[in-house]
Design goal:
alpha/beta; Rossmann fold; binds S-adenosylmethionine; SAM-dependent_MTases_sf; rRNA processing; transferase; 220 residues; seven-stranded mixed beta sheet
């Protein structure tokens, strides 16, 4: 629960024009999420002290660029959701998709549950667990993750959550090529195929978003 109002209100990044493009009719809910996260995120230890000033571009729109890659009416698990990035943003942008937010830290799952209720999101389940403990909640059509760990350790804990032929979609940084090289044996062991890296968000956000996208098992 939110217990106290911060002494000084944070400096919040003005909403960029891209927000209307990526959220469409869902923009009022995205605005409420941005306002709540900017106001309480630092206090609750969800975001660092500098993040409110770049919340839209660095975090919310960066997360939302994944939305068009989600399967219509699908079941998505977001591993290590933290403040709700990208999982809650995706649930806002894609109300047709059910998103399970998997996060082990109680303080963070409390926030995720409270914020889900405040935003009135009917398509979100919050699961307090490590990904390794969440296999029974699946299988999911797609699993997302951002800033959880390098591919070498992320793939073994996320691939078992996905149905045969489902997808892994991870937001990644500039060193993704090195991560893929370091994970080659792990990718083979977990039957990861058709791996690709997409660069998204050009013209929408200052920094390009890199997406690692791959299929688990299935047939080519
Ligand atoms: C650096 S934070 C990133 C949070 C959010 N995804 C973001 O981009 O802001 C990493 C998160 O992953 C969670 N985490 C770490 N190991 C995990 C695991 N094995 N399963 C699920 N979540 C995990 C942590 O509790 C933490 O909330």
């Amino acid at each position: 629960m939110i217990r106290a109002v911060p002494a000084t209100p944070p400096v919040i990044e003005p909403e960029p024009a891209a927000a209307a493009v990526v959220f469409g009719e869902q923009l009022p809910i995205a605005r409420r999420f941005a306002a709540d996260l900017a106001q309480y995120g630092e206090q609750l230890g969800l975001i660092g002290p500098l993040e409110a000033a770049r919340l839209w571009s660095r975090h919310i729109i960066n997360s939302a660029v994944v939305a068009p890659f989600l399967q219509d009416g699908g079941r998505v698990a977001d591993v290590g959701s933290g403040a709700g990035l990208p999982g809650m943003v995706l649930a806002i942008a894609r109300p047709d998709v059910h998103v399970t937010l998997i996060e082990p830290m109680e303080r963070r799952t409390d926030w995720l549950r409270d914020e889900t209720a405040r935003l009135g999101l009917a398509n979100v389940t919050v699961l307090r667990a490590r990904a390794e403990e969440a296999v029974e909640a699946g299988p999911f059509d797609q699993v997302t993750a951002r800033a959880v760990s390098a591919l070498r350790t992320l793939v073994p804990i996320t691939a078992p959550l996905v149905r045969d032929g489902g997808e892994l979609i991870f937001l990644k940084g500039a060193r993704i090529a090195e991560e893929i090289a370091a994970a080659s044996a792990v990718l083979r062991r977990h039957r990861i195929r058709d791996a690709e890296v997409l660069e998204l968000g050009e013209g929408l956000v200052p920094e390009v978003t890199r997406l690692f996208r791959a299929t688990v098992g299935g047939t080519s």
